[in-house]
Protein 1
Amino acid sequence: MTDPDSNARTRAVRAALGWRAPTTPATPPAPAPAVEPATPPAPAPAVEPEPPGRKTRARTRGPLAMLVALIAGLAGCDRAQGTVLWHAYNGAERDALAAGAARWNAEHPDKPLELVSVPYGAFADKLTSAIPGGNGPDLFIYPQDRIGDWADSGVIEPLEFWVNDARAGRFSNEAVEAMAYKGSLWGLPVAVKSIALYYRTDLVAQPPKTTDELVELAPRMAQKHGYAVAYANVDLYGHAPWLFGFGGKILDERGDLAIATPEAAAAMAFARDLVAKGVAPDHAEGPLVATLFNEGKAATVMSGPWFQSDIAAGVPWKVAVLPTVSATGKPASPFLGAEGILMSARARDKDTAFAVLDYLTSDTSAIERAKLARQVVPNTRAYADAAVASDATLRAFRDQLANTVPMPKGPAMRMVWTPYKTALGEVVAGRAEPGASLLAVEREVTGYLAGVKR
């Protein structure tokens, strides 16, 4: 096996990881006991953003989809000699993953890979409870926002023992950094996802470059009883482009809460004004956003790659980067999410599990997923493929990555989603003021964190 320190690593990877490669695979630590707050009430359940890919609508099953059945048939194989991977993919993403698994099984019949689909809503809780008892998967696919919790509690295995310079060099720097935590690498990325701007080409000749241009679409769309833009405006994930475009934050450079700031208040006020002036619908959720776009009552939509499956046949559309916030001159910047394949600390055969992980994140697999599922893959060499490079939608989402904010991986972020959504909904509806609402959110999250830290 290649010594991970035998080759010099790039400065970017070192900066992201603070690299400290162990000489042997880490021994799975015993799971940390759950720490309950000393005083009720317990922290509110975190409402995390629906990660990209989870909203994919089931499509007509074609020949490729039949591969899913082939993989499922492996359930009868000897579990001790196989690798189990949990995922929550649907539709084209599921089929593309199944295609990679089928290739692995054809090449390694003695080390079968079994894919197990788990509903996303129950995914994190199932992993957290199953892995410490040795009943979970060997590998699983999940966004980076839970890496901190799982690394701290010994649920996942650090990978730098197996990752040499060539493997790390497959991926963009931001994708590697998303999988890093406390000086270790905890996964290899399979997809990077963010919000961008969809626009109907029959309603908008050119996508708006600024928020002023976006607002200027409203009077014409009002004549159609429609809106200039539709997006999940009461979710922090959907609101993030405005928050960061106005210069707001969730956490500061030291990782401390920085929720209640004048910049964040200005972003909330902007979101409220979009509704008050008829530029955007009130309290928009995924189904409403899709319906408005499909019916020609939303000229643009702010959403991620998963929205493509919601667009009705025959609707003319393209994707562009989000507009610049006219008030600040800063680009609207959504959260950057990265999905990675992570290894359980209780994986039965870690060398084989890593071999599978390595195979599914290779350039070959990335190109396959980009073509079949239009995933925005983090493998930089995948974009040298002619078919991938010529895909205008993939190119637009890749261009958006330059103006994104990585989603934090620590426990503080998970405490923010629910109270922020509640406050944002009240402000957008005109029932509360931004400044006071943000102060209340920061106090609430501070209280939750104090309970967790006791």
Note: The chain has a mean pLDDT of 84.
Protein 2
Amino acid sequence: MKRVGVVLLLAVLALIWHERLALQAFPGILSAYSAKEYCSCRYVMNNPPEYCQGYVKQYLPLSELLDDPAHQRVTASGLGQSNSAAWGGPRQGCRLLPAQ
């Protein structure tokens, strides 16, 4: 029975090692997805802020979601990463902005 536990532990560690690059990228994906989707919900679909906050709510909470209506820009922060998206116009929609 103890061998089964050791084999399972080794299998899990091997899987984590194999997927290490994807796991390292995850914190940035959370904030990027939230910023882009909130921007699209708010400025492409013209939904109210309360609706869009519920729309992008995920199991892992964001530490910050800033909506700048004057510049039609959204910044989301979570898991130590921050990303921004901005409305580019009716033909471009919302785009993620390069990291600063």
Note: DSSP finds three helices and four strands in the chain.
